[in-house]
Write a structure and sequence with these properties.
Elements lengths: L10 H13 L7 H14 L3 E5 L2 H11 L7 E5 L4 H8 L4 E5 L10 H7 L4 E7 L8 H10 L3 E5 L7 E2 L2 E2 L6 E5 L12 E5 L2 H10 L23 H11 L2 H19 L5 E3 L3 E2 L2 E2 L5 E5 L6 H10 L5 E2 L8 H5 L9 H9 E4 L7 H14 L1
Parallel strand pairs: 2-3, 2-4, 4-5, 5-8
Antiparallel strand pairs: 1-9, 6-7, 8-9, 10-13, 11-12, 13-15, 14-15
The structure holds pyridoxal-5'-phosphate (PLP).
The site of pyridoxal-5'-phosphate has 13 residues, from α3.
Length: 367
C-alpha cells in the first residue's frame, strides 16, 4: 500500500528525542520547550509563542482567551476541519459560515465582508490544503471594523503570503504539529501572538489556570493542554531543516501536477497561482466530470494499493451540529461540491518519486 501519509523522521530527529528522554525532562518542563517556542516565533515573526497539545487545543484556547460574550458572532469557513467551529460553539458563540471557492478551496473573502454585522467579533482565517488566504485583505477588513483576526495556519507551516510567513498576520495564530504537518512532533500545536495580555491568558488556560497565590485555588476553567519536552526536541530538530521540508513538499506537488494536469476529468492545483504559492500540505484532486464520484475513484485506487483520504465534510452538513440544533440557512454549493468530488493523494514527506508517479499512472488509467 502507498500510504496517505508517511512522515519523514530522520536519525537526527530520533537522537534528539532519545537525548531528551534520557535527560529526564519528559513532561511539560524542560529546556527544549523554550528553545522551540523561541525558534518558532522568530521564524514566523511574532513576539510570543505557547506550545500546546494539538492544533484543536490551540484553537479552543485562542477563542476562549478573547473573552467574548455569549452569541457574539465569529466568521469562519464552511469547508474546513471541525476544530474551527467546535472552538466557537464550545464558548457559546455563534458561528457564521462562509463558502469556499473552487480553485483555491479557501473561504471567499468577498463573502466574509458581506457576512459582517455589528455582532461580529472575530474571523477565523483558515488556510486550506496548500494555498494561503489573502491575509492582507483580511487584515484590512478586520482592522477597519475592529474585529479580531484568528489565523489558523495548521496546514501552512513555512508558507508565505507576500513574503511574510503565514501565522504572522493574525492577532492570534494557531498551528498543528500532527504527523502529516510540515513540522511534526507526533501531536502538538502552537499559539502565537504579539499581545502580552493574550499570551499570559493563553499560558494560564493551557495549564489549568493555577492560582498565582494559592496554586490550587484556580482563577478560571482551563485545560491541561500542555506540550512535552520530548516533543519539543523533535520539533526543534525538524525546524532546523524547514526549508528542505518545504522544498520536498513542493517537489511532490509538482510531480503530481505535471503528470495529472492534462487529464481533462480532474482539477489539480498548480504550484503557484499568481501571488499564491502552494506548499501542498496535501495534494488534492477535484473531479470535474460528474460522471465520476470521489468514492468510486478512491475504491479503485485502493484496489491497486493506493490509500487516499476524503476531503473535509462541510460544516453545514455535520450530524453533530444538526443534533445541537445549530442550523445555517444559507447554501454552500462549492463546499458541498468539494466534499463529494474531492479527495487527496498520498503526499507525506516520506513518499518516493516513483510512488508519486505510480499514483499518477493509476489515476490516469482509471479515468
Ligand atoms: C486547518 C486545521 N486546523 C486545525 C487542525 C487540528 O489540528 P490537530 O489535529 O493538531 O488537532 C487541523 C488538522 O489537520 C487543520 O487542518
Amino acid at each position: 500500500m502507498i500510504p496517505i501519509n508517511q512522515p519523514l523522521i530522520t536519525k537526527e530527529d530520533a537522537i534528539a528525542v532519545y537525548k531528551s528522554v534520557k535527560s529526564g525532562w519528559i513532561s511539560s518542563a524542560g529546556p527544549e520547550i523554550e528553545l522551540f517556542e523561541n525558534k518558532f516565533k522568530k521564524i514566523i515573526g511574532k513576539k510570543y509563542c505557547s506550545l500546546v497539545a494539538n492544533g484543536t487545543a490551540a484553537l479552543e484556547i485562542a477563542i476562549k482567551s478573547l473573552n467574548l460574550k455569549k452569541n457574539d458572532e465569529v466568521i469562519l469557513p464552511n469547508f474546513t476541519i471541525i476544530s474551527n467551529i467546535l472552538a466557537v460553539i464550545k464558548q457559546g458563540l455563534k458561528p457564521v459560515l462562509i463558502d469556499c471557492d473552487l480553485e483555491m478551496w479557501n473561504m471567499k473573502i468577498d463573502d466574509v465582508e458581506k457576512a459582517i454585522t455589528n455582532r461580529t467579533k472575530a474571523i477565523i482565517a483558515t488556510h486550506i490544503y496548500g494555498y494561503p488566504l489573502n491575509m492582507q485583505r483580511l487584515l484590512k477588513i478586520s482592522r477597519s471594523r475592529k474585529i479580531i483576526l484568528i489565523e489558523d495556519a495548521a496546514e501552512m507551516i513555512g508558507n508565505k503570503f507576500k513574503k511574510k510567513y503565514c501565522g504572522s498576520f493574525g492577532d492570534i495564530s494557531t498551528f498543528s504539529f500532527y504527523a502529516n504537518k510540515h513540522i511534526t512532533t507526533g501531536e502538538g500545536g502552537a499559539i502565537l501572538t504579539n499581545s502580552k495580555t493574550l499570551h499570559n491568558k493563553i499560558e494560564e488556560l493551557k495549564n489549568l489556570c493555577f492560582g498565582k497565590v494559592n496554586r490550587y485555588n484556580h482563577s478560571d476553567l482551563g485545560w491541561n493542554y500542555r506540550f512535552t519536552n520530548m516533543q519539543a526536541a523533535l520539533g526543534l530538530s525538524q525546524l532546523s531543516r524547514l526549508k528542505s521540508i518545504i522544498n520536498k513538499k513542493i517537489e511532490i506537488g509538482k510531480i503530481y501536477y505535471e503528470n495529472l494536469k492534462n487529464n481533462k476529468n480532474i482539477y489539480i492545483q498548480k504550484p503557484r497561482m499568481g501571488i499564491y504559492k502552494n506548499i501542498y500540505w496535501v495534494v488534492g484532486l477535484l473531479i470535474k466530470n460528474k460522471k465520476f464520484k470521489a468514492d468510486m475513484i478512491r475504491n479503485k485506487l485502493k484496489k491497486v494499493g493506493i490509500e487516499t483520504r476524503a476531503f473535509f465534510w462541510p460544516m453545514n452538513k455535520q450530524t453533530v451540529l444538526k443534533k445541537l440544533n445549530i442550523r445555517f440557512n444559507k447554501q454552500f454549493p462549492n463546499s458541498e461540491y468539494l466534499s463529494k468530488y474531492g479527495f487527496y493523494l498520498p503526499s507525506g514527506l516520506g513518499i518516493r518519486k516513483e510512488q508519486v508517479k505510480k499514483v499518477c499512472l493509476e489515476i490516469n488509467k482509471i479515468f
